[in-house]
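Report of the visiting student (M.T.), summer placement. My assignment was to run the structure pipeline on a short list of targets and document each run. The first record concerns Cytochrome P450.
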Amino acid sequence: MRSQTMDKPMVDISHDIFPRIQPHVYTWTRMYGRNFLTWHGSKPYLFVTEPELIKEILSNKEDTYPKKDMEGYVKNY
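After the run finished, the structure tokens were exported:
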């Protein structure tokens, strides 16, 4: 899906690059709504695109939303 999008030239220059960079997530957002759940093997991933919910998740003062453990190279920093 990504190779199909990258083969086409950008007709208009804009800041709306999400459909071009991650076309699969863009398609799922249009199909399933602004927040949806996907599975990668046995792990569920929740995609949240509503600004108010993103603020709540990122503030996370009560540790309601656990953060994913970093692996490999990123863990060293």
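The helical segments are 2-7, 18-21, 23-32, 51-59. Residues 18-65 form one domain. I thank the supervising group for their guidance throughout the placement.
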